[in-house]
Amino acid sequence: MNSRIGYIAFNTFREAVRDRVLYNLIAFALLLSGAAILVGEISIDIERLVVVNLGLTAVSLFGVVIAIFIGIGLVSKEIDKRTLYTVLSRPVRRWEFVVGKFFGLTGTLVVNTFLMAIGVFLALLYVAHRFEKMDVWVLVALYFIVLQFLIVCALALFFSSFSTPLMSAVFTFALFVIGNLAEDLRGFAKITQGVGGWIATAIAYLVPNFSALNVISQVAHGDAVPGRLILYNSVYTLLYSAMAISGAVLIFQRRNLK
Amino acid sequence: MAAIEILDLEKSYLVGFWRKRPKLALRPLRLTIEEGEVFGFLGPNGAGKTTTLKLLMGLVFPTAGTARILGMDIDDPRVKSQIGFLPEQPYFYDHLSARELLNYYAQLSGVPAKGRSARVEQMLARVGLSDSAGVQLRKFSKGMLQRLGLAQAIVHDPKLVFLDEPMSGLDPMGRREVRDLIQQMRHEGKTVFFSTHILSDAEALCDRVGVIHQGELRGVGAVAELTSQTQGKVEIIFYSRTVPAGLTSLGAEARLSGDMVNAVLPEEQQDAALEVLRRERLKLISLTPVRSSLEEYYIQKLRPTESRTEESRKGVGV
C-alpha cells in the first residue's frame, strides 16, 4: 500500500478510537451477556440458535450504524473543519486521501468486529459449554458481515462526496435496507415483463446484494456455507466497493473546497 | 528564478439556487514573486486573498489562467513537497497531540523516517511548544494553535511558505512571536507569501506588498520605496507653549501638545521656519521629512477609480 494512504488510514483509525467509537463494545457486551444469561435460563435446546442469531445480528447492526455515521463524515467533516487544507497542500493526491479514509474506517470496523466476535464465541461457550465443528460457519458469517461493512463504508463515502451528511446517511441506510431485499428484487424482476422488467432488473442488480451476504440464519441452524458463495461474495464486495470508491474519487477530484 | 508566477489566474463561482449565475471571486491576476522574497498580500476581508491562496494550493480550481511555483506547474505533484501552507484560522485534528500532528504531517510530506522525530522536536522547540508537545490539541489556545500551524507549515523544510492571515485573532504577544518566526524564515532564505489586513505587520516584515480589492490586484510596490517617498512636506517639533505667529504665516499646520509644538509645513518653507524658531529662541527637537506610509498607499489603492465605478454601475464584478 502507498505509504501516504497508510498514514491517512492510521490517523482515521486513531481518531475513531480516541473519539470513543469502540465504546459501543460495552453496550454490545452488556446486550450479549444479558441475552446469554437469559437464554441459559429459559431456552431448551435452542440456546445456540438464539445466541448466534442475536450475536451476529447485533454485530451487523452495531457495525452498520458505525459505518454509516462515521462514513458520511469522513470527507465532509474534514472539509467543514478545514483539516483537509493542510493535508491536501502536501504531496497527497485527492484519491489517496479518499482511499486512506476508507481503509481507516474499515480497519476500525474490522477491529470492532473482531472484539465483538470474541464476545459472541464467549457467549456460545457459556450457553453450550463447548465449541462444535459447525461453529466454524459462524466465522464465515462474521467474514460476510465485514464484507457488508466494506460496501456500506464505500457507499457512505460515495454519497458524502456530493451530498449533505444527513442525506448521505438516509441514502446509505435506504440502500442497506433495499440491499437486504436484493434477492426478492431479482425474483420480482424475473417475473416482470417489458420496460418494467428492464427497470426492475437494472435496479435489482444495481443495489448492493446484502441478502447474499447475510447467512446468519443459516449458520445459526448449523448449516454449512458453500465455498463458491464465499468466493462470489468476496469478488462481488471487492468490485462493488471499488466502484463506489471510484465514484467518490471522481467527484472529489473535481470538487472546489470552499 | 521566480518563486511564484501567477499567470492570469481567475476564479468565478456559480451562485443562486435556481438560476445559477457566475460571481467573480478573482479577476485575472498576474503577479510574480521572486525567490527569497517576503511578499505581503494586502486587502480587506473578502478581497480575494484566500481565494488566491486556495488556487495556488490546488484546493479550488481556476476558471482560467494558471500559475507556476518554483518553476513547476501548480498541478505538478512535486511542487507540494517544496511548499508549506498555513490556512486562515487553522483547525487541526484535535484528537492528536502537537507532537503526533507534526509527525503525521512530516510523514505525509515525505520526511524520511530517519531524523523525522528529531525534526519534529526541533520544530516544537522553535515555536515554543516543547512543554505542551504531548497535550491534545483540543486543550490548546488560539495562539498555541497558530504557532503549531507555523510549525506544520515548515516541518518538511519547504522553500516556499504560504501563510493566510497568520496574525489574525492573536494578542500582541502572539503577533510578535509569529512575526519573529516569519523573520527567521526570511533569514533562512525561504520565500514567504502571506496575506494580511494588518498593515503594520506587512510594513515590518515585507519586501514587497500587493493590494487586492474586490478580486482585483490594485497595485504592487516595494515597502522600502513606498515608505521612503517624501510628500514635499517637513515636520518640525520644538519646545514652546504657544504657536509662533511667524510659523502660521508660513502655512504651517501646527498642533500644541503640552510644552511641545508639532508643525507640518511645505519643504520650501523649511529654512524660513527655522529662522522663526531662531528668532524666537525656541529649542528645536526634530525636523524630519514627512514620508508616505503603507496605510496611505493601501487606502489610495482601495479607492474606486472612475473606470471601476463605471464597471460596477454596469454590474460587472464581485
Description:
The complex is a heterodimer of chains A (258) and B (318). Helices cover 78% and strands 0% of the residues of chain A. Chain A contains 12 helices and no strands. Chain A has one domain (3-253). The mean pLDDT of chain A is 90. In chain A, helix 6 (94-128) packs antiparallel against helix 7 (136-160), helix 7 runs parallel beside helix 12 and helix 9 (182-191) runs antiparallel to helix 10 (194-206). Chain B is α/β, with parallel strands linked by helices and 318 residues long. Helix content of chain B is 33%, strand content 31%. Chain B contains 11 helices and 14 strands. In chain B, the strands form 3 sheets. Chain B has a 6-stranded mixed sheet with strand order 6-7-8-3-9-10, with helices on both faces. In chain B, strands 2-1-4-5 form a 4-stranded antiparallel sheet, with helices on one face. Chain B has a 4-stranded antiparallel sheet with strand order 12-13-11-14, with no helix packed on it. Chain B has 2 domains: 2-226, Rossmann fold (3-Layer(aba) Sandwich); 230-290, 2-Layer Sandwich (Alpha-Beta Plaits), CATH 3.30.70. Chains A and B meet through helix 1 and helix 5 of A and strand 6 and helix 2 of B.
Please render the helix and strand layout as text.
The complex is a heterodimer of chains A (258) and B (318).
Chain A: H1 3-18, H2 24-42, H3 47-71, H4 76-80, H5 83-88, H6 94-128, H7 136-160, H8 165-179, H9 182-191, H10 194-206, H11 216-220, H12 227-253
Helix pairs in contact in A: 1-6, 2-3, 2-6, 3-6, 3-7, 6-7, 6-12, 7-8, 7-12, 9-10
Chain B: E1 2-15, E2 21-34, E3 38-42, H1 49-57, E4 64-69, E5 72-73, E6 83-86, H2 98-108, H3 116-126, H4 142-154, E7 160-164, H5 172-187, E8 191-196, H6 199-205, E9 208-213, E10 216-222, H7 223-228, E11 230-239, H8 245-248, E12 253-257, E13 260-266, H9 270-279, E14 284-291, H10 294-302, H11 306-313
Parallel strand pairs in B: 3-8, 3-9, 6-7, 7-8
Antiparallel strand pairs in B: 1-2, 1-4, 4-5, 9-10, 11-13, 11-14, 12-13
